[in-house]
Specification:
The structure is a single chain. It is built from ten helices and seven strands. By secondary structure, it is an alpha/beta fold. The protein folds into two domains: 147 residues, Vaccinia Virus protein VP39 (Rossmann fold, 3-Layer(aba) Sandwich); 90 residues, Orthogonal Bundle (Adenine-specific Methyltransferase, domain 2). It has a seven-stranded mixed beta sheet with strand order 3-2-1-4-5-7-6, sandwiched between helices. Helix 3 crosses helix 7, helix 4 packs across helix 6 and helix 4 packs antiparallel against helix 7. The two termini are 18 Å apart.
């Protein structure tokens, strides 16, 4: 059953915080994973926090995101103290957003990223062509929903876990028989949808979707079990047409209060049969 104390602390486009209940029966328990757990599109880490595997390699292509996890893992109270002292308001947001912290220490960078995530518009994770975070101000309503206790809990769950900044192909190549991979890549848009720009310069093209499918085919041949979420776009389901598919109708455009605005078909694809 779902862990009642899931410590998801980030706002993240496409996050599975509200959706994991719809497909958790397809996910293995931590005791069913005989080897390592891999998650190469970590994002908000909802599924990792849900399963709480004993051994895990967690990764994402975003260096800012992974530095946030590294900072919270290393010193959650230090990140919280930096976070809570950052000023409020629109002007402060843009000043902090535009500040160059490339030479700042890990804890300061982590606190800044957490601040931007909690106060930016709809939790979007978007960068310009120069690699600078460029999402506008969204307000303070969601800033204090999280607590120091949340960061401490996240830190405990990350203890002993490997955190990497990497492309998914390298991470999938590490997995072998007995290992399990959960993948939640940027979704392929349907015919009537505009391409998702939440990830800015880190655009995930259909060529990447094909590359991902090929990596998972190779992983399957090594005895790796995995599950992947994506949109119900026909070109995606055709890439995985020989697999068991669970088709879900889920709300994809929501306010932070969970108000349902639009529905779109999503698919959960897996080569794992529960109990086998």
């Amino acid at each position: 059953m779902e862990n009642p104390a899931n410590p998801v602390f980030l706002r993240y486009p496409g996050g599975k915080k509200r959706k994991v209940k719809s497909f958790f029966d397809l996910l293995p328990t931590k005791d069913e994973i005989k080897g390592r757990y891999f998650e190469p599109f970590l994002g908000g880490a909802t599924v990792f926090f849900h399963i709480r595997p004993k051994k895990a390699t967690l990764s994402d292509l975003s260096g800012d995101l992974m530095d946030l996890y590294r900072g919270v893992k290393k010193d959650p109270k230090g990140v919280w103290q930096k976070y809570r002292t950052l000023p409020e308001g629109r002007d402060a947001y843009y000043a902090i957003r535009n500040e160059d912290l490339s030479k700042a220490n890990l804890i300061t960078r982590a606190a800044r990223t957490l601040f931007l995530n909690r106060t930016c518009f709809k939790g979007m994770w978007r960068y310009n062509s120069a690699g600078r975070f460029n999402v506008g101000y969204g307000g303070e309503d969601r800033r204090w929903v999280i607590t120091e206790h949340d960061l401490v809990m996240v830190s405990k769950l990350l203890k002993g876990k490997h955190l990497l900044t990497s492309d998914f192909e390298q991470i999938i190549a590490y997995a072998n028989e007995g290992d399990y991979i959960f993948l939640d890549p940027p979704y392929q848009p349907g015919e009537s949808e505009m391409r998702n720009d939440h990830f800015g310069y880190m655009c995930f093209s259909f060529t990447d979707q094909i590359r991902l499918a090929r990596c998972l085919t190779k992983a399957s041949s090594r005895g790796v079990k995995w599950a992947l979420t994506n949109s119900g776009a026909s070109e995606i389901t055709e890439l995985y047409q020989d697999l068991h598919l669970l088709v879900l109708d889920l709300s994809v455009l929501e306010t932070d209060k969970g108000e349902r605005l639009e529905t779109r078909k999503e698919v959960i694809m897996t080569n794992l049969t529960k109990g086998g």
